[in-house]
């Protein structure tokens, strides 16, 4: 293992190098560009043996990865924001075709107004596309997820593409120390990709076919079951990862000081660290504050979330997203988890960080204090709250 | 936590200096942590750039821009304004590359040292001045960071310039 001072993008590229993809299709877009640049340098200098295809658009990038996967290759691509939206048609082909492609998405705002900064509206708009979706907090986790992603996606029980989300700029462009495993360690963790779901001239079969009303829903049901199965595979994979690399992750969610918490912020991505630091500060003042970080939005951690929120006085979902005309999508998902578990707790939504706007420690402290005294159900940090449908 | 803000213009290497400091701080000690990041957004040569280095003995989780700095290092004196004093902690200091004396800040002719080693930019000289003045990292840790993170063909000149700058403020 070697230690390096790397950005989130560079760390992710190192993780992909260790995973030995055979085909990389790439179209650059800020703030994803550096990951595909680094990978092209690795292919050029021979430290990664892959077919690197510089395509003409994001739609082609994912189409190309689908083709590669259908030929039995381990495929990688990366995108962001409008690029993800442009390839949206192909997301569903990849998922429905059960092609375990890994794609990094640098979470970035969506137009208009045009903006290259980070928020999570791009990937959250694609929750229904049938992809696994992870959200990393820091560069080390980004590298580790890159390596774990293929093992999870390619598992026979799962066979589902994997979208690894990194917050644009605050994670993709921020440098920190990262442990880089050796190729020997990585190879012992992740075997080469083997599948029957590929073009094979000796055993020809129909792939990527049509299915009419009689059978279509069975494919969709199986697709759903595959994504659900990822939850268990993620836990198994993390256990195996810890044995080899010494870093233990916590499954679909990560809890911080939640055991006796009265007030919890549920969030995702790189803002979670500042939430934990703020929770510590409030604990020093006698407020029982905690944090739940959602690591995976799909499969969604219904049980993990209802278990941890069942005894709180109130919770806030802090997210860099808004589903116009309703509320934040993460909030909708979290509330649904509690409703299914029959739990009644005061719930609040805080929308922040849109278009890259800073979320400060003071903003987070305000969330804790305002949910303790009660506020509007949907609140825009820096603007105010409103009651949505109440 | 120690926080350093770097001000330069696109192409002057302010962010490279911010990164080198973070790398130097963590290069030998697994119990030390750093974050380094630029002011985010489109990059344009000549446009004002800010960069940030945060150093601590526990993982740095606050990824927001520094509000109170221990040091502000300014590579181009046209970027200095008295309002920057408000960005300092009580005992914070501002280090400026300038031929002129400026009130309330430490000025050095970094360009002179850079020119001596044929360097077109002053970033590693300013890094050296910071190292010499603050002792925030040791000079040999700074050298190791240059060896690890700058292209091989410019390492030697940058190391020489850095060490000269460290010496300059030690005297």
TrEMBL record, chain A:
Name of the protein this chain belongs to: 2-ketoisovalerate ferredoxin oxidoreductase subunit alpha
Family to which the UniProt record says this protein belongs: Belongs to the pyruvate:ferredoxin/flavodoxin oxidoreductase family.
GO biological process entries: carboxylic acid metabolic process; response to oxidative stress
Domain Pyruvate flavodoxin/ferredoxin oxidoreductase pyrimidine binding as annotated: residue spans: 15-238
Gene Ontology MF terms: oxidoreductase activity, acting on the aldehyde or oxo group of donors
Organism expressing this protein natively: Ruminococcus flavefaciens 007c
Pyruvate:ferredoxin oxidoreductase core domain sequence ranges: 261-364
The entry's keywords: Oxidoreductase
UniProtKB/TrEMBL annotation, chain B:
GO MF annotation: an example: oxidoreductase activity, acting on the aldehyde or oxo group of donors, iron-sulfur protein as acceptor
Coiled coil residues, start to end: none
InterPro entries: Oxidoreductase_gamma_subunit, PorC_KorC, Pyrv/ketoisovalerate_OxRed_cat, Pyrv_flavodox_OxRed_cen
PANTHER family, alphabetized: PYRUVATE SYNTHASE SUBUNIT PORC (PTHR43366)
Domain Pyruvate/ketoisovalerate oxidoreductase catalytic: 10-166
Gene3D superfamilies recorded: Pyruvate-ferredoxin oxidoreductase, PFOR, domain III (3.40.920.10)
Presence of the UniProt keyword Oxidoreductase in the record: yes
Taxonomy, superkingdom: Bacteria
Species this chain originates from: Ruminococcus flavefaciens 007c
Protein name in UniProt: Pyruvate/ketoisovalerate oxidoreductase catalytic domain-containing protein
SUPFAM superfamilies: Pyruvate-ferredoxin oxidoreductase, PFOR, domain III (SSF53323)
Keyword annotations of the record: Oxidoreductase
